Amino acid sequence: MASSALSPALVKFLQFIVVETLEGRGDRLTESFIAEKVFNQQEFAPSEKSVVRVEKRRLRERLKDYYQGPGKDDRLVISLGSTFVPVFSPRGNDIPQTERRKFPWQWTVYAAAAILGLAAVVTWILLRRTAPEDFALTQLTYDSGSTTEPAISPDGKLVAYTSDRTGEGNRDIWAQNIATGDRARMAADPADDDEPSFSPDGSKVVFRSDRDGGGIYTVAILGGELKLIARRGRGPRFSPDGQRIVYWVGESYFVRTQVYVVAAMGGTPRQVQPKFYGAHDAVWSSDGKYLLFWGQRDESSAPDWWVAQVDGGEPVETGIFAVFARQNLSAGGPAAWVDDQVYFSARRDTTNLWKTTISPRTGKSSGRPRRLTFGTGQEGEPSVASNGNLVFSSAATSTNVWRLPMDLKQGKVTGNLERVTRDLSTEVFPSISANQRLAFSADRSGKREIWVKDLAMGKDTLLATSSSEFDSPKIAPDGSRVAYAVASPGWAIHVISSTGAEDRIYPNGGPPRAFSADGTKLLYEAKSCSPYCVGLLDLSTGKTEELIRHPKLALYPESFSPDGAWVAFQARPVDNDSNRTIYVTSYGDEHVGGPETWIQVTDGNHMDREVKWSPDGGWLYFLSERDGFRCIWAERLDRMTKHPIGQPFPVYHFHHSQQSLTSLGSPGKVGLSVTSDGLLFSLAETTGNIWLARARK
Length: 697
Prior knowledge:
The strands form 12 sheets. Strands 3, 25, 26, 27, 28, 49, 50 and 51 form an 8-stranded antiparallel beta sheet that branches. Strands 20, 21, 22, 23 and 24 form a 5-stranded antiparallel beta sheet that branches. The chain has 3 domains: 3-119, no CATH class; 134-145 and 210-388, Neuraminidase; 397-686, TolB, C-terminal domain (Neuraminidase), CATH 2.120.10. The radius of gyration is 26 Å and the shape is globular. The protein is mainly β. 10% of the residues lie in helices and 43% in strands.
């Protein structure tokens, strides 16, 4: 089926009308309203070829096909009648006759837990036409939660994957027979297990686990003793002869990472290409002599895929990222390397599976990358069997702004998480003013945009649009202005009025981090420093200065205290991006003192950042990955001296794979913000399932 057979807007259409209806706003689902919100038609004029009516007819047929096929056992059926309001109907005798006659709205909302079935409908619609002519698609799992990271056995008979289907709040490794569907959980543990991969003979699975501080483990597919191979580590892969395992070490893609090789039975790991600042996502060549990996020579250089001999030698840059750039592709690391064919996931208009050609011997690519799937979901993590079949995950992620009610003077949570925004776009970098104006970055039209939402009035205002990512929008305390950075050319800071009427540009800046309480000063990351330092922009004069710097530490600004007398910032050694230390220092007319005046708040043994002050200045709230997840932590301070009292403690954990701060990638996108009665931040919700692409004869 041609790739034009399904518009990405069809799924957005379905999700939008369902969310609006369940939120009690079904009365505003008119043709013109949907045309504006879903199809971005600002000046709607009804016609015989109305896109809304055309898509409605197509959606009605898709829903009918789904509930007659894969969804024939779903307890709740979603359908479309004469209006744009979806109808939720119980199937058969799932509820008593009396309730079926009444079918009260309250039951509908409760039954909308079956709206988890919406994810299945969406996935089925998306992938119905994703296969090109050389593949036939089969869905292997039908979970309502997060089932991802598939690996297919070399003989193509088994698939291993990560799933939270038990409902216990953690991820486990599961093995499933592709032919029969029989499945079993492997090496169950309360800690998260991730990233499985088969041994060449299919008898073992290697995976990453968070148990006991984290590490690489192997276990027999038929059950047996769990064996620790190496401490720490991610993305493990057996060599083609089964004698070695390659993996990478690092807290995330956004810090210093290193690739290691270790014997499959355990032993002393050996680092591969230790001179690289960043190296991860390594895959073996078919003969086991070479590794292909995502690599970055130093912190300031552009990344690329590199080929290196496993046993040493000078690496070769493939130049594939330049090819990707010409095709407007955004890719991470390679997923599989079979002979000279590299399989990977990349985003252009959507995130799909691709393959390209890279020679193991020369390290050079030839030909254009070829798209393998054409769906509008997030298709990724391909794994290839010897018979040419491959498995992959299809995930759906929504990212909105959430609020956590808290007594910020006591460090105590006072209520449940509350969703602040409900749009279907990805909404990140939230920043809130004292008068309840929320600034954030979104992709509502397919491009990155900066919006301001008046939470009191419920009104949204578009401030700026760009084809690339905006960096770190921050709103002034009085809500009058929003600052953001543009990386090219020269990291300019833009300060735009919240009405969009005025836009001032300050060159030679960097990503803004925080306004002062009176709105006259702006902390920013000074990219001109080497190493990075804390920059200060005086908005009244337009002058910039290097406020805090250190010859051996890279410094990153965080926030002003509410009274403007203190500045919080974080530091790391120039040669180590695995840990950060939070400091505070006084700020006044003479600005700040040297390192001897800095007050150390955290011990520097963990990844602690995104620091915000409580309204009374007696607490610091920040993101920390010290328990293996990105969670919200707090530290109490002496109100006068700002010295820490006691040890940091967790405020709220995000250990569940369906709701995550880590999956946002850059911690800046979380946008941890403080209000008068709680914390505000972006949160990603993910659902996903596994599909088989069977090679046609």
